Amino acid sequence: MDSGDSHLLYRSVWFMFAVMMVLGMASVSEARVHYHKWKISYQNWSPDCMQVTIISINGQYPGPTIKAREGDTVVVEIDNQMPTENVVIHWHGIRQIETPWSDGTASMSQCAIQPSTTYIYRYAADRPGTYFYHGHYGLQRSAGFYGSLIVDSAETEPFVYDGELSIILNDWWHTSTYQQAAGLLSNPFVWVGEPQSLLIEGRGKYNCSAGSSTTCNVTSNQCLPHILPVKPGKTYRLRIASVASLSSLNFLIQGHKMTVVEADGHYVEPVEVENLDVYSGESYSVLIRADQDSSKNYWAAVNVRGRKPITPTGLAVLNYLPNPSTNLPTKPPPPSPVWNDYAYSKTLAKKFLALAGHEEPPPMKPTRQLILLNTQNKINGFIKWAINNISLVPPPTPYLAAMKYKIHGAYDTTPPPDAYHPRDYNITIPPINPNAVEGSGVYVFELNSVVDVILQNANTLTKNSSEIHPWHLHGHDFWILGFGEGVFDPLKDPKKYNLVNPPLRNTVPLFPYGWTALRFKADNPGVWAFHCHLEAHFFMGMGVMFAEGIHKVGRLPRSAMGCGLVLNKMMHH
Ligand SMILES: O=C1O[C@H]([C@@H](O)CO)C(O)=C1O
């Protein structure tokens, strides 16, 4: 915007304000603009008492919480002060309606923000809910680059509470993300391994077995447990999200049941649980009542699910006021369900249903159906993940600019296959002939069409092994139509879809050896990633690109286009 534009805007805002005053409308709540200025820099930090280098925002970890009200605008000016690394930030759960260039995906929605460079994200907090933000370049999310984004409702909500608390769950490694990335890109492959700690709101406790040292300091304030303060007798809305890099997690609060009321920004029929599975990329609101013995404090605990856990339980303290928060509970927290009790997780996942009256899915047959086979695979001996045998390699020119400005040669223009071949692929054994290819093609949908996606799981490269993959869609929510075992049957299985009250979400688990079916409306002009939210898996190519309505995308900010072929185009015009 040049200064002429801003004067005009300034004058028209004042004019509207004056009109509202005259009409006596000033009491009507006005949409606000929340302006944040963030410096991104390295810091040495001890989230679990072991000192490592993290990516911080304004020197903080986790990053600052963004709070907005439905209808408000959020503006975040990023100043990349890391001397040797680009950044982008993805606003997870925000659909970026009319602002696809603010989705914060490197190579997709924008050119990554270079060192000593600024970029302004501006977007509408168009819908209430529990969201978060995180780095979406390389393995930056695993370096602690994330924080909460909470959008309050402008209307009365379908439940009541006295206070609100918010936590982000995470898993944590002591090896640097650079070392992890090098291992993942090597042949022989070096896996990142299981995390050293689990963190609640950026805090955990590693057992510095060799005793405290300058690098592992059990007395560091940074690894004191996170405190959740509550007043006896009151009800709290606890917002829970997971940015875990690898682990599926299970969360519980000693002695307290939780009633789940919101998932990924959508109200669900209330479900009472003793413990809650939270997959990476998911968010929930639960109601908890502080109705236990108020002379005590209680553990909030998080454990690994779906992978044989060698990581200790992560702990926070539910602190009944006015007890001191340092009064730690004397009894250990109850255990989470056994890590490989998948039946438990599937039953729980199927319990979340849209609250009555919520947006229903279009009941018609989909315009398009994709069946996406997830395989751990090999390319020239390197271990990758592939979807319908293609491992996604994002191109140097961001898709959004490439598609909008029709830049030739920026990405594979051959669309990837709608289904996998051969159709009798055996999902119960390691791939017989792992021979994936790299690709950068895009699934292009007709604007406003209805798309069904069936995610099909399979055996990994290791015998008797299939893993959980939480899939996250950018720019949209989808209805979860069903989960199933084994190979999806395109004739029989759609008959079992829940078209009555499926939950609307942006992230869904794909269980081992099973399938997950979802439906969405391709109604948001832009280019959008759809990918496994496990950081290492996306890094290894586990994702696809979707696009629709490119002709409706507005003018891209120049600052989103300073790289690849789009840079040449800008320089020559
Ligand atoms: O992508 C992965 O690689 C490892 C293992 O399959 C090979 O070391 C693992 O557990 C993953 O999830």
Automatic annotation (TrEMBL):
<keyword id="KW-0964">Secreted</keyword>
<dbReference type="InterPro" id="IPR034267">
    <property type="entry name" value="CuRO_3_AAO"/>
</dbReference>
<dbReference type="Pfam" id="PF00394">
    <property type="entry name" value="Cu-oxidase"/>
</dbReference>
<dbReference type="InterPro" id="IPR011707">
    <property type="entry name" value="Cu-oxidase-like_N"/>
</dbReference>
<keyword id="KW-0472">Membrane</keyword>
<keyword id="KW-1133">Transmembrane helix</keyword>
<dbReference type="InterPro" id="IPR045087">
    <property type="entry name" value="Cu-oxidase_fam"/>
</dbReference>
<dbReference type="InterPro" id="IPR008972">
    <property type="entry name" value="Cupredoxin"/>
</dbReference>
<dbReference type="InterPro" id="IPR011706">
    <property type="entry name" value="Cu-oxidase_C"/>
</dbReference>
<dbReference type="GO" id="GO:0005507">
    <property type="term" value="F:copper ion binding"/>
</dbReference>
<dbReference type="InterPro" id="IPR002355">
    <property type="entry name" value="Cu_oxidase_Cu_BS"/>
</dbReference>
<dbReference type="GO" id="GO:0005576">
    <property type="term" value="C:extracellular region"/>
</dbReference>
<feature type="domain" description="Plastocyanin-like">
    <location>
        <begin position="166"/>
        <end position="321"/>
    </location>
</feature>
<keyword id="KW-0812">Transmembrane</keyword>
<comment type="subunit">
    <text>Dimer.</text>
</comment>
<feature type="domain" description="Plastocyanin-like">
    <location>
        <begin position="428"/>
        <end position="549"/>
    </location>
</feature>
<keyword id="KW-1015">Disulfide bond</keyword>
<protein>
    <recommendedName>
        <fullName>L-ascorbate oxidase</fullName>
        <ecNumber>1.10.3.3</ecNumber>
    </recommendedName>
</protein>
<feature type="domain" description="Plastocyanin-like">
    <location>
        <begin position="40"/>
        <end position="154"/>
    </location>
</feature>
<dbReference type="Pfam" id="PF07732">
    <property type="entry name" value="Cu-oxidase_3"/>
</dbReference>
<keyword id="KW-0479">Metal-binding</keyword>
<comment type="similarity">
    <text>Belongs to the multicopper oxidase family.</text>
</comment>
<dbReference type="InterPro" id="IPR001117">
    <property type="entry name" value="Cu-oxidase_2nd"/>
</dbReference>
<dbReference type="Pfam" id="PF07731">
    <property type="entry name" value="Cu-oxidase_2"/>
</dbReference>
<keyword id="KW-0677">Repeat</keyword>
<dbReference type="GO" id="GO:0008447">
    <property type="term" value="F:L-ascorbate oxidase activity"/>
</dbReference>
<dbReference type="InterPro" id="IPR017760">
    <property type="entry name" value="L-ascorbate_oxidase_pln"/>
</dbReference>
<keyword id="KW-0560">Oxidoreductase</keyword>
<keyword id="KW-0186">Copper</keyword>
<dbReference type="InterPro" id="IPR033138">
    <property type="entry name" value="Cu_oxidase_CS"/>
</dbReference>
<feature type="transmembrane region" description="Helical">
    <location>
        <begin position="12"/>
        <end position="29"/>
    </location>
</feature>
